[in-house]
Write a sequence for this structure.
């Protein structure tokens, strides 16, 4: 297909008429498709049906009755399982409830109210604190900062991770920068896996704040779409080797392995960090749901089985990702109006359109019954200054729904792009 | 048995020798009994075995797939069940994860960082905030205040609830008093149920702080020991009638109905409160474990079944409470050295000994292999100024263990009392 930038006004207007006809046809179909969130589809959830009746005992490996109180940091075998998943020692793991987002949020509230290991004062006692936010990124990370008035500084994402020249400069200069949000593997939404060099630079960089923390949301560590997945350098090892062992908080969960609502979540950090966090947490709760931890360990047993399980997920969602990519290529390829990545894993495809068009496109798609992630969501404060990023979540809709939704999207992208080009030419 | 206060020094010394022989006999038995926490025993947990295989569908009543993300405030039928338990409307309920303590803690952190409905500023922005702590009370409530530097003011417990003359006076005068901790039914540890008058005075009292909150931990609302249980006046209705509808946060859970680790917890409050809390919570989590909520609703169905279920709990633990009371009466009755209540429900018996003796008694019992709740635990900052309260948790040990443990305790009470009387007479 032709480069839109090389079409003349007449050609653009003719093409626009055709697109409007198609758009109105879709509108007439009263579609009702939701691709706004990274949710597993029912077929994926069915893969873990066995989780619900796999318990043959209430006892953890250390004899704990999982039905009763206690076990603040999780049962030993659940810590072992997450140690494998997150590539740390079981002593560096706390297994919590069903939500890793909740564990991240609670880490922030503890830091604000009580401080982290090495803090002179709780973060909340300081006049200003700031977080670096590689963007586009995960809206729920940014929302936590926004709720607490933590200033967010946008750092651009490059093809191998955040722009580390900027990160290094800022954290070295500004003591009020206390943290950075990272989704280092199959990043949300770009699907980028950080290079070894980026991981090393994170581990080694000098930070003005001595209680600076990397929030390493390793949400998609085993979530490959293809047999040969990306690999991510071990940040915990890198931090230890760099002499900054307490720098990183790592998070993970089975929310997109077993059940999104009823999985188990964990965090990992140095033993210094874990020791303080457990002390702080002991006031918040007596312990997590150990029965659900036991259920997960009985069902999955080890990382190797989880990897096999994830191949079944991939078999369900890979065709969806490929359908989206095929339609984007066939409808938008070569037109010079949109760019996207081809992730090897994770839950999203990140679509970039002409500057100033994303919000309009998302609105047009909504009018045709296709709900996309709201414009701006992938940036701090919901402000995509160039108004050009659209996060696509292909997993939840059926393949047929998905194809229709992406066709609608492609029509909207083209209509908005033509509108912009015509306006600029007039 | 004779009043110790009427025995002469010789009699006391003779009796002391006999007690020391018995104490040393127990010591030789190398007992290892733990009555420190209010934990259900395995037989109680067995009552809910059916909870683990009762699911026949993943769908909530509104069609929600409970395996997937969403449903911040719980599934409709779980809200309905807790509405029955807590005597409120389902619109006034948020059903959370497995821990009501966690929900209370999170309510406090939200209040500190963000404020409650009606707050001019987040509580944490104020120079000083204070909570009233009816005491003896629940150590984990007090620990939350202590962690956040919330000043605690002791209010005495009377036979029908907190000393309301003091409560009313303090809250009317001091704007920095933002809340009060209450376990209004079968209170921890006294087993007292607040009278209707007390509930009404709570609802009606004038508070200087316009965003004052009662933290109404209704942990034992269906936890009767006898067919005829205590009844507690509905605080939500009373607050509405008094024109203070937003005053109360109510908490409950199934931790001592189903499984302590894997139950479901809920909070209730006015719709104004719930609406703000849901908005605040939406940043913390996508939602609770809905599968476990569904499991509980399928298993228990309604309050009437829960009441039947609690009779089975009572049948297991009532003999334990009665054994404790019988031994206390036979060993300490009439001696004028110890006083205790006879609760109609809940998890504790509260023992008062001579001033200055509780810590010594608890230490002596520990040396004989009987672990009791640490001295001072039932008061703010762990400081029982009169050093006289001992919390007994009869549910977890077997009946035989319990009898031995209480015999040891009674020997320790007598030895410490004789020691005190002799010291005062010398």
């Amino acid at each position: 297909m032709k480069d839109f930038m090389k079409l003349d006004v007449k050609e653009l207007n003719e093409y626009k008429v055709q697109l409007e006809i198609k758009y109105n046809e879709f509108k007439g179909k009263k579609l009702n498709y939701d691709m706004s969130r990274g949710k597993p589809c029912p077929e994926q959830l069915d893969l873990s049906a066995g989780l619900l009746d796999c318990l043959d005992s209430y006892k953890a490996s250390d004899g704990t009755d999982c039905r009763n109180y206690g076990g603040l940091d999780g049962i030993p075998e659940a810590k072992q399982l997450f140690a494998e998943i997150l590539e740390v020692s079981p002593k560096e793991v706390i297994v919590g409830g069903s939500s890793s987002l909740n564990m991240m949020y609670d880490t922030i509230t503890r830091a604000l109210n009580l401080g982290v290991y090495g803090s002179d004062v709780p973060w909340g006692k300081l006049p200003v604190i700031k977080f670096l936010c590689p963007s586009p990124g995960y809206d729920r990370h940014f929302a936590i900062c926004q709720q607490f008035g933590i200033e967010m500084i946008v750092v651009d994402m490059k093809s191998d991770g955040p722009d580390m020249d900027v990160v290094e400069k800022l954290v070295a200069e500004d003591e009020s920068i206390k943290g950075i949000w990272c989704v280092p593997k199959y990043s949300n939404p770009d699907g980028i896996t950080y290079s070894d060099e980026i991981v090393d630079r994170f581990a080694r960089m000098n930070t003005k704040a001595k209680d600076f923390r990397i929030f390493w949301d390793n949400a998609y560590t085993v979530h490959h779409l293809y047999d040969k997945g990306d690999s991510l350098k071990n940040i915990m090892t890198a931090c230890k080797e760099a002499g900054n062992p307490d720098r990183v908080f790592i998070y993970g969960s089975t929310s997109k392995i077993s059940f999104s609502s009823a999985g188990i979540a964990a965090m990992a950090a140095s033993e210094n960090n874990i020791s303080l966090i457990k002390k702080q947490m002991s006031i918040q709760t007596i312990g997590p749901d150990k029965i659900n931890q036991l259920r997960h360990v009985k069902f999955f047993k080890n990382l190797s089985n989880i990897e096999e399980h994830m191949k079944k997920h991939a078999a369900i969602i890979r065709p969806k990702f490929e359908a989206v990519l095929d339609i984007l290529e066939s409808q938008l390829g070569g037109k010079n109006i949109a760019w996207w990545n081809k992730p090897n894993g994770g839950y999203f495809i990140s679509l970039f359109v002409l500057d100033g068009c994303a919000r309009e496109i998302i609105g047009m798609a909504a009018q045709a019954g296709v709900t996309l992630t709201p414009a701006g969501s992938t940036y701090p404060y919901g402000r995509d200054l160039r108004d050009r990023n659209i996060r696509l979540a292909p997993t939840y809709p059926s393949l047929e729904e998905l194809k229709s939704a992406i066709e609608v999207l492609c029509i909207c992208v083209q209509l908005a792009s033509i509108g912009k080009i015509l306006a600029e030419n007039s």
About this structure: Chain B touches chain A through 51 residues (CB under 8 Å).
